[in-house]
Design goal:
Helix content is 2%, strand content 53%. By secondary structure, the chain is mostly beta strands.
Length: 259
């Protein structure tokens, strides 16, 4: 199985022409935060005269300077997403490996959890369409996931956990932790919003791993990670959730697959 891990930064390097302009602060009257130009060598993307490749433009703009959650994403002059956090960045990748690049928008919240959001836009029937986004709720919603996991002390420094979202259960070995037995008996798990997106390719196509950290009591006592795995569906041109895994130090303790 061929597996190539692609970080967010590697996504800058794709087919065609790319020019990125990043503005950490507003430097123009248009409130331009970032502009990225990119192109494709795919024949259907050529101009009608076939003399040059069509160049697309993705822009991250601020209509005003009053709020931190008000950026706008435009692609080829059309608004495709609003209400974006200021700590955000446009990147380019090729989901289908067809030399027709997609636009990746990574959002970063300003909270202590360091939450992230990811939207992916592709040209579907000549329109820029979002093919990936959190299908359940926004990671920046007011409600949190502190009650997602419940625990039960099993003795011998082992804790049984239950995921109230997926109903997955498992056992966690805490023998090497600094917690006392009394603390383990009163263990409370805190689940963070999504803190990382890993985009990678295998022989089954492009996949996105959305990672949430689970902490014992509070930061920085990370004990579990929840991985929601999304796979690109070629016929429907969208990403679909196909697997959830709960891990400890890269060891899978529980998982489930979706049809």
């Amino acid at each position: 199985m061929r597996k190539v891990l692609i970080s967010m930064y590697v996504l800058w390097f794709v087919f065609g022409i790319q020019i990125g302009y990043a503005y950490p602060q507003l430097e123009s009257a248009e409130h331009v935060i970032q502009i990225v130009q990119f192109s494709s060598t795919y024949i259907k993307e050529l101009d009608s005269d076939h003399d040059r490749v069509r160049v697309h433009t993705a822009e991250l703009l601020a209509p005003d300077t009053k709020f931190s959650h008000n950026l706008v994403l435009k692609i080829d002059g059309n608004i495709v997403l609003e209400g974006i956090f200021w700590n955000s960045k446009i990147m380019i990748g090729d989901v289908e490996d067809d030399s027709r690049p997609e636009v990746f928008l990574y959002e970063y919240s300003v909270g202590s959890a360091g939450a992230m959001g990811l939207s992916v836009f592709s040209r579907v029937e000549n329109q820029w369409t979002r093919i990936f986004g959190d299908p359940v709720k926004s990671i920046f919603a007011d409600d949190d996931d502190d009650d997602r996991f419940s625990s039960k002390y099993l003795g011998n420094s082992r804790i049984g956990f239950s995921d109230n979202v997926t109903n997955l259960t498992g056992e966690l070995d805490m023998s090497e932790s600094h917690f006392t037995q009394e603390q383990l008996k009163d263990m409370v798990f805190q689940t963070d919003p999504i803190s990382e997106y890993i985009v990678h390719y295998e022989n089954i196509g492009c996949q996105i791993d959305a990672v949430r950290w689970v902490f014992a009591f509070s930061h920085p006592n990370g004990v579990l990670t929840v991985h929601d795995m999304y796979r690109f569906d070629y016929p429907e041109k969208v990403f679909k959730l196909y697997e959830t895994k709960i891990q400890n130090n890269d060891v899978t303790l529980a998982k489930m697959n979706y049809d």
